[in-house]
Amino acid sequence: MSTQLLLDGVNRSFDGFKAINDLSLTVEKGELRAIIGPNGAGKTTMMDIITGKTRPDTGRVLWNQSVDLTRTDEAGSARLGIGRKFQKPTVFETQTVEDNIALALKEDRSVWATLFYRRSAEDTRRIGELLELVKLSHVAGWMAGDLSHGQKQWLEIGMLMAQDPELLLVDEPAAGMTDAETMRTAELLRQIAGKHTVIVVEHDMDFVRALGCRVTVLHQGHVLAEGSLDHVSANEQVIEVYLGR
Amino acid sequence: MLSLIDRRMGIFLAGLFVLAVAVPAGNLAMAGQPVPSYIVALLGKYLCYALLAVALDLVWGYCGILSLGHGAFFALGGYAMGMHLMREIGARGVYANPDLPDFMVFLGWKELPWFWTGFDMFGFALLMVLLVPGALAFVFGWFAFRSRVTGVYLSIITQAMTYALMLAFFRNEMGFGGNNGLTDFKDVLGFSLQADATRAGLFVLSAIALAAGLLVAKAITSSKLGKVLIAIRDAESRTRFIGYRVEEYKLFVFVVSAMMAGVAGALYVPQVGIINPGEFSPANSIGIVIWVALGGRGTLVGAALGAIIVSVAQTLFTSWFPELWLFALGGLFVFVTIFLPTGVLGLIESRLGRKAKPPAGAKEASA
What we know:
Chain A is an alpha/beta fold. Chain A has helices at about 45-50, 75-80, 95-105, 110-115, 120-135, 150-160, 180-190, 205-210, 230-235, 235-245; strands spanning about 5-15, 15-30, 30-35, 60-65, 65-70, 80-85, 165-170, 195-200, 215-220, 220-225. In chain A, the strands form two sheets. A six-stranded mixed beta sheet of chain A has the order 6-7-8-3-9-10, with helices on both faces. In chain A, helix 3 runs parallel beside helix 6 (about 150-160). By secondary structure, chain B is mostly helical. In chain B, the strands form two sheets. Chain B has a two-stranded antiparallel ribbon with strand order 1-4. In chain B, strands 2-3 form a two-stranded antiparallel ribbon. In chain B, strand 2 (about 185-190) and strand 3 (about 190) form a beta hairpin. Classes of the chains: A alpha/beta, B mainly alpha. The interface of A and B includes residues 73, 79 and 92 of A.
């Protein structure tokens, strides 16, 4: 396996507060990785840095061992193949479920190409396939704003898949979901991994257990422990700062 | 192109067509002149306002860019046309100077400033009607959108832009007639601007321009690009993370809208016979926002309707109770914002029993 994403000695502070402190992390291609940590551990800032929303003060962020991610913006990182799902489901509420997927579909993103775009049969097939994957075919014509919270989460995952990204960054997908939805989401992410690299930030330990993958614990912007869930759960420091006794 | 004409658009265009035939016919061809000449000019002016409203709706209703300076693009288009009309006066001015407009002679200028070069040619002037507002929108938008200035901050700087232009155009040294602006036009392409036939022609042209503007805006908003614009309006950062360069899209639609506003200004000037720096006044630009909000934001047709309704009301009101007009306008705006979030068009459509498609801007009221 080769390295998909490398963070090496990354630092970032906001008004003197070190949100990210000498963070180093390697994620392999096709891996499913869970990132856990208490509030303020720097999980979201880490995602901001990977997607080019925030620039690190120092350190290297390398994509596929070659591309410097500290120089791209959000659209640039998306075009490289990094897809991001927000904690709060963000879909285009006044447009149909189908149009939401269509907008995310991997196509030329330039202004002219978009203005003169005609949907091909292949695109239609792909949209249908994605709607099937996230179980939203029956509501394809609905306004996305009319979906339930869980459905919006799935729609957003569907939009991520439509981009056909190499790496998916998923921020707390299980937040606000019922137990059944949570388990379905874990299953969906396990399905996606392998073909795509997936990094999940999560608080819900049952969900992380259901993912059954390697876990990285962040604390104060730094990697505290890494390994299987059982391994990190046994770590004294992790228990101290995060899991509680 | 037929696919662009939905029911709403179809009804409006049909009404516009009837107007474009009936008004000139009533003015020129019928005995007793049931449509007096001043009404032709007045209606022509409303149609220009309607086109301006459509231009604003394109950026505000669909892309969430609340421009409080769209009057500037309208005025620049108007000035470009006004400069050509000044040159057409030729030696028929008060000072009978074949090379210089009257106000330059009055200021003691000896030769035409370089930026007046070419405006004696109608084609060049038409090009400038599009290029000058377009270029300003491009430069302004390039900086603003790249720096990710959004929301109320963007509104404020658009307002500052039109205010700055107003102050600049008030100065005689700018070379655009200062306080008095450009006026005393004689003819356009050899047709006298005082003749009823010319006025009727300008009216028909305004109707055609409005129809074309509506169709262009409709084509843009119905395309995938239009969906990206709505996506930007509703969730800008999501749109970025999907891989769209939001600033490029905003720039595109802002420039198209500015050009459309420029065309409206260019048709407006020969019909009202004057263009002066007052057209840059921030109050004018805020007025456009009220038209669009009142008619129905994000509907295009609603914006055009709103411009016409408010302008008609203004004409009537200012002749009955001139000092009360601004209160009435303010009251109308408050009433519409609170009770008609989908505007007059939304009201009409829901009254007709048809479940109106929620206008693209219904979900979130403010930009």
